[in-house]
Amino acid sequence: MNAHSAKKPHAPGWEAKRAKLEHYFDRTALDAWAAMTSDAPVSKIRATVRAGREEMRNTLLSWLPADLTGRRILDAGCGTGMLSIEAARRGAEVVGIDVSPQLIEIGKERLPDDVKGRISLHAGDMLDASFGEFDHIVSMDVLIHYESDQIAAATARLAERTRHSLLFTFAPGTPLLKTARAIGQFFPKSDRSPSIIPVEHGLVKSRLSRSVPHAKLGRDQRISRGFYTSHAQEVLLG
Prior knowledge:
The protein is built from eight helices and seven strands; from the N terminus they run αααβαβαββαβααββ. It has 238 residues and is an alpha/beta fold. The protein has a single domain, classed as Rossmann fold. Strands 3-2-1-4-5-7-6 form a seven-stranded mixed sheet, sandwiched between helices. The radius of gyration is 17 Å and the shape is globular.
């Protein structure tokens, strides 16, 4: 690990946004997201989000080696640990970090017996360098809430601790997402999510080339299912 990586500041506004996300996932919509990450019945709208998230999760997992024995994985923004479980079943040692302590507790309660020895779940900041280095880092639907400069800064921080590949998703600049952001109506008022910030893919790639100049951009994939739209980017580091 870079000796001074832990001293690097976050991008401007990172801490304030992280606090809003913690409040949302830990208090405002905890029950909704606990249901979303289970097989419990949900509304038609949330069912499309669940289906989109499942397809995205499977896409990201398909970009990792089939055999992860001996590999250390960071699930950055793990929620209740669904991706962590699948990576552990391939033999990986997985560290899952999420901003929501309550989602982490739900994740711990749901851990199947066959992976309990290979997964550790923690509430905290995914950019915390004290968790060490990883062979692969996966961050699904966390950076969708951040501006392009914050995405670049966060991926640069994560890349410093990644030996092979970094996989993350962002909100693409589609007309639907831009309109939804403008009217602020993705969810009912009582549990509306923090703002999803659409970013053009070209801008993301341009900022990545400057923030992580030693990396190579790999595969990318956009997934849209009803009320779910997200774009995955692979960053190769070694």
